[in-house]
């Protein structure tokens, strides 16, 4: 691939674009557009922004991702978790509903886009790896709960706020008296309807004999039906005059050209949250993109994805949007509807542009409670507390990381939750590797294999202590090995040779090198020789560059069996007769 | 060992105490006492405390360590690096020379003792492992430079201060005009004399026919000679009246009973530095204790050492001292002089108590410049910049950790230096393991061994991709493996089986489990089966507790050779003929 084509994937798939692919992409685009109109309005509500921001954030970003992204079917735009993070970040620097709030959203999108772009250019995509699966799962689950609870006030028709679960619940409890009955009826029935659609509509349609794909797409149109029905109800009965909050006037316009606010204070306050949004968005998007790509044996380039998402966010910043990423629901619909190339995304953008110009008067009477219902039903599918049970059964360390992430995200906010989860999973990993599994091994009789003396019936020689180290040696675990060898040797007086079997040692850092030197020196002081066996090529290469091998009291054996043959013979004959022989020579 | 005897090691060695051991311990104690008098005064000067604090800090701590510590020969008391850390920590909360300063030193010793004790009781000694050897080496070297530079003002006889190298140099440059010529003469000649003693006296004495041990001990008495000579000079010529700063009146008393200041603000300000002092002190002490113990095939229990050092620091807090730990120089002298049991330490404490009561008038005229000279000569042996060159040759990551620790300790202070070193070495370690070595392997003809296809001439089968993963799988590196497999499989269309050879995979965390599930699912979507081979017992035990093995598209083979035989046979015959056969069946 030439340089330009590496950075602009459209130059690859664009040349081979066929009429058939065009037809497929167009059909997918129509379906996705219909689904995206209510979803975009809803996520803008969640982010605390005016409704049109959600639509604008779905237009230019999709186009830019189509040019720079590597996934054929990923649909980029506002998503639930990023909208929540946006509300949390901007809520700290501006009040919702002010001009400063919308300007800060542009700044956040710009910073997030810049960070993603830089990570892509400098190939720093691996930074996302610091988010372990349990931390992500815990964070997504807790975010889902936070989002659902944050929407209850729209269902109840009361004011409220807060960025943590206790704050939100206190705010709900305090304002409960102001609840609007009509809003509540709309909100509860929309929620119930959407849950029913999600759970029962598709099986019902299948029973009626519809093809699975049609049944699936129709059941995904549930939110559109709820939007239409409740909008008509408000319009027909003028419910907005009886206290039902509605979307109201949305400007009829293409995305405007906007300029983010670059005030140093604002940038300083938003750079941290922007980095978090970038990484979380990237992880979410990659997981969707790779799942879909694998189904068609296509490849996703993580560094190029960073560039694609970066461009999309910069696009959002200059066209009245807010931070975006590849969304799960919209991408799956796009894929299922038959999208073949990123052109489907471009057609979706056109569809949304037409909607922004022509259809916004239609949503004037749409109740916020309906939008809140679509959000609640969508995000509750993100909530999966079974991760607690799964990690508990698999590994306590992973369980602790999940539980802490969930509790802190709910109790102290999204940023602290993720930061604590990352820090904790790193510390727990280091702790686990700080006490490596070290097995004392002996020869399986009649073979050349060595196995744990506590699990197998093996031959040993009291003059030879053989330890198989099941971990790379590095600063966190070397002292453990040092203590273990010293304890073992001081308790067995016949020991004259210690053999470290390095078959599972993939690396030896400088601390470990010095520790091996110290172990050798201390064993020498006790009249014991240190040997190594089965050292891997890359480890041996490094050791050869030092004086360690020259000074080593013993030898490096290619195989453990060589070591055994040589050192047993040194004492006397191998096996149980070795003791007397060794003592005789010592 | 019963519970009490585990926590009070004196109950073990005390029962078997012999007359011979008593004689040996007594001789060692006399030699160590003589060496410790000037050293204690000097380190108190370095810590910014009155001279007697250094002596008091050597009495009760030694006694308590003799009861609770596990090393037979470790000598506990003030040491250079801990004195520097003390000065840095207390300098932030009180002015040198005030009563608050000395009280804060007691609080620091109390907090440090408490932290060590808690770490011992809860067996948290492994926390010290987070200090890698390069970070410790860099920190000790930078501390040596800082200490030496901090003493130049006593050699010059000028006021000054600062806790970083630039601050100290600026302070020296600003006050250079006030230098006292007589002080300078004393300081420079004492320094030159001590360097000469250190370098040339022992060889000279050996040439005169003295036994090596005697020569060694005499050459270590150099500081005592310098102290005596310069004190006599000041006394004889009344140099103190001509501007030479002297130790002055030191109270003639046993260590007083003192109470640390527990003001909440002070405790809050000192708890961080106290934790740092505890860990650095523990690491330094353990390294000395283990080196000496190994020479006599004795054992050090790290958790009990924490209790011993904790008791020693609590002792210092209540008897007018400041934070202490096991010192290298004093312990080596104790060992070389023939100390057999911790009783030698107790006798040293008695010797120092006698000195504190009877001998303090003798040091009234001792010039501070001489003490500064002993410190400079002692700490310059800590400075070892060769660590930069050694780590550069061995591993760039370790080099970066050393260089950053040295630069930040010198430029930004001891606390930031250590913290940055620890954080950096953890991040570099994670980064190294984030891109594990993965080798594509094939069968060495005529054997059952598999080797890297790029290094060896091996048999392969285009339908089988075998990857040997040389690292434990955990959240930081799983996405790398996922991307690598996806890239490799999408570029080789004949591949029908992927075998992951797990011989060097020591652990699989929950993130890696989920990634393996995702890899399996994605390969299945491409019509490829995933197999594992040579999975270790502990990893297999964990996988058996999940649904992973039930759902796996392929199989788990005991050995890679089994996998090869089975999967090649599945296609057709093994080796180069496999292609056609596999294609025929696919």
UniProtKB/TrEMBL annotation, chains A, B:
Domain STAS as annotated: residue spans: 454-567
| Originating organism | Paracoccus albicereus
- Membrane topology term: Multi-pass membrane protein
The record ties this protein, via InterPro entries, to:
SLC26A/SulP_dom, SLC26A/SulP_fam, STAS_dom, STAS_dom_sf
Which SUPFAM superfamilies does the entry mention? SpoIIaa-like
What's the name of the protein? Sulfate permease
Question: What keywords were assigned to this record?
Answer: Membrane, Transmembrane, Transmembrane helix
Extent of the signal sequence: none
Where in the cell? Membrane
Q: Write out the transmembrane intervals.
A: 21-41, 53-68, 75-94, 100-122, 134-156, 176-197, 217-237, 266-285, 344-363, 370-388, 400-428
């Amino acid at each position: 691939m030439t340089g330009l084509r590496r950075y602009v994937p459209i130059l690859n798939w664009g040349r081979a674009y066929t009429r058939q692919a065009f037809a497929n992409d167009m059909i997918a685009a129509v379906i996705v557009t219909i689904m995206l109109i209510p979803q975009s309005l809803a996520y803008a509500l969640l982010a605390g922004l005016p409704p049109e921001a959600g639509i604008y954030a779905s237009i230019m970003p999709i186009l830019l991702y189509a040019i720079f992204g590597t996934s054929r079917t990923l649909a980029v735009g506002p998503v639930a978790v990023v909208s929540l993070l946006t509300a949390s970040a901007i809520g700290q620097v501006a009040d919702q509903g002010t001009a400063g709030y919308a300007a800060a959203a542009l700044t956040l999108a710009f910073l997030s886009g810049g960070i993603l772009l830089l990570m892509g250019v400098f190939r720093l995509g691996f930074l996302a790896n610091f988010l372990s699966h349990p931390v992500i799962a815990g964070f997504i689950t807790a975010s889902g709960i936070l989002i659902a609870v944050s929407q209850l006030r729209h269902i109840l028709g009361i004011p409220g706020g807060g960025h943590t679960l206790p704050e939100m619940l206190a705010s709900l409890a305090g304002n409960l008296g102001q609840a609007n009955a009509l809003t509540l009826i709309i909100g509860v029935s929309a929620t119930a309807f959407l849950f029913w659609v999600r759970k029962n509509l598709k099986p019902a349609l299948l029973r009626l004999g519809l093809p699975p794909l049609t049944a699936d797409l129709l059941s995904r149109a549930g939110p559109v039906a709820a939007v239409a029905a409740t909008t008509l109800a408000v319009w027909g009965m003028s419910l907005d005059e009886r206290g039902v909050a509605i979307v109201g006037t949305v400007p009829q316009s293409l995305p405007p050209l906007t300029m983010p606010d670059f005030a140093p204070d604002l940038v300083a306050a938003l750079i941290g949250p922007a980095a978090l949004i970038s990484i979380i968005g990237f992880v979410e998007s990659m997981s969707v993109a790779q799942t879909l790509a694998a189904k068609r044996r296509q490849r996703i380039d993580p560094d190029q994805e960073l560039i694609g998402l970066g461009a999309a966010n910069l696009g959002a910043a200059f066209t009245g949007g807010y931070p975006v990423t590849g969304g799960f629901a919209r991408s799956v619909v796009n894929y299922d509807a038959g999208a073949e190339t990123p052109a489907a995304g471009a057609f979706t953008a056109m569809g949304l542009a037409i909607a922004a110009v022509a259809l916004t008067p239609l949503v004037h009477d749409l109740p916020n409670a309906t939008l809140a219902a679509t959000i609640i039903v969508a995000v509750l599918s993100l909530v999966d507390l079974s991760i607690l049970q799964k990690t508990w059964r698999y590994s306590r360390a992973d369980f602790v990381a999940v539980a802490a992430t969930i509790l802190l995200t709910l109790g102290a906010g999204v940023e602290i939750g993720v930061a604590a989860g990352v820090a904790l999973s790193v510390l727990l990993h280091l702790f686990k590797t700080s006490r490596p599994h070290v097995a004392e091994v002996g020869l399986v009789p009649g073979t050349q294999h060595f196995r744990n003396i506590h699990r197998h019936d093996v031959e040993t020689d009291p003059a030879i202590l053989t330890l198989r180290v099941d971990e790379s040696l590095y600063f966190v675990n070397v002292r453990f090995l040092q203590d273990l060898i010293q304890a073992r040797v001081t308790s067995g007086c016949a020991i004259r040779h210690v053999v470290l079997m390095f078959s599972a040692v993939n690396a030896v850092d400088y601390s470990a090198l010095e520790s091996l030197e110290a172990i050798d020196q201390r064993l020498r002081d006790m009249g014991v020789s240190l040997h190594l066996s089965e050292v891997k090529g890359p480890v041996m290469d490094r050791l050869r560059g030092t004086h360690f091998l020259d000074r080593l009291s013993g030898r490096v054996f290619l195989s453990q069996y060589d070591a055994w043959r040589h050192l047993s013979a040194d004492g006397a004959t191998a096996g149980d007769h070795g003791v007397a022989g060794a003592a005789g020579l010592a």
